[in-house]
Amino acid sequence: MEPPRPSRGVPRAEGRVTAAGLQVKRAGIGSTIKGRTFGPGNTTTLPPCVGEARAEECFLRHGPPTQHTGTHVMNGWKKEEPCLVNGHHCLPRPAEVETAQHVAGTPPERPLLQSAHIPVPIQRKPSEKADLDEVIAATVLTSLSTSPLLLGQGTGICTTEPCSKVSKEGALVSSSCSSSTNSGDWNWDFQGDPSIPSTPSPPLSIEVSKTCLSSAQSDDGIEDTDTVHFLFGDPIPRKRKNSVKVMFKCLWKNCGKVLSTSSGIQKHIRAVHLGRRAEPDHSDGEEDFYYTEIDVNMDSLTDGLSSLTPVSPTTSTPPVFPILEQSAWTLPAPTNSELPLVTPLSLSAPTSLCHVHTDHAYQAASPISVSTAKLFPGNAGFSFSWQPPPVLFKTPPGSLNLAQIRTVGVNEKRLQMPHQTVVKTYSPAVSAPKTGMRKPRGDAKKCRKVYGMENREMWCTACRWKKACQRFMD
DNA sequence: TCTGCCGGGTG
DNA sequence: CACCCGGCAGA
Ligand SMILES: [Zn+2]
Question: What is the predicted ipTM?
């Protein structure tokens, strides 16, 4: 007995962040935090990251805390003043807030995302006024540098590739920070020991994402939609060039959860940090403040992985990612993000851990998936140049077939992604022994159980079709 | 009873 | 094909 499903074909409002969502949802956020505030231009002193700010976050966002100015509030940048840090000038995404306003002291709508964090060379001066001027100057420069026009033309900051829609499912997973509510959203945390500020010395590169601001200039004419998503604060996982995958990182204190979908991270934040049970549809969007986009370079990642002990596809013991213990790095989901990568600590993960695999057989099942597929031409959420053999694909969950991951290399610049035709294939992964014997049911938890009926859209395609699960194989 | 998914149906 | 689901069988 399944609960009435949402009408098929109508993608759930993932990006329920509407225009309203861009409004300040938390009036006075930070104004009371630690009682420390720094007015605009107050860069004379460089208070270390204090208050709720996390050192690692600050570092991630702006560099060494000691070079910070302003106040970090919770996990976001206090909006009351411009963030002029370590040569970086934080600007709200153009679409969200007017640059001039921001500089003038008008708080951005939300914590500045890394993606909007554009480095701008700035000469620090002792006087406040001078700093203010700098801020203004930087702002101008930044705004220029982030203009769609420029971005679209080889600034390398943003690609013109279709910043398509939200990738529905899939995720990388991790461990800690989790809660019983992460259903389906696998992730992993960056921090190993909360007490140790994780420094950005990841084995794999994670770069501050320059969110695809260009949109308006995309040549495939998709940006309209994309722009909408973007403007409405709905981060869109998209495939960049070959190996850059956009992930979403939870910025909550001591949580470094990284998920591959905005919805996932939102859910995580709502449930774990905000303690809200309400459906995303009823969310006030506050969670948007606590996560940011990060670009993950597949190449680096895989390079790092290559050093790991290869795991036999038949291994029954789930391999563990040593690197996971370290810091920020992410592994993109192989396909339309329908792949979990887990650490042993993952709570919501099925019994099997740490595996990378996809649901190739059933791709782009839902409308959402379709759009995802669109984003990830070639049917693979990421440019993995692999054609998983039907049989070999029978990789047991928990095994990481490194051989299937191709290394490419981080790209600061997003290149346009050629549109490819989505290849949908349904190859029931080899009908094993055709002995007519119904193969014994695996006892592994499948999508249905892992995500639950209410999250059916998170199931792998096969499960949705009531076929043999392609995600959590036995 | 729940779950996984085969086998078959539909468009 | 992509997608859906009745219904069986194992847990
Ligand atoms: Zn499944």
Answer: 0.94
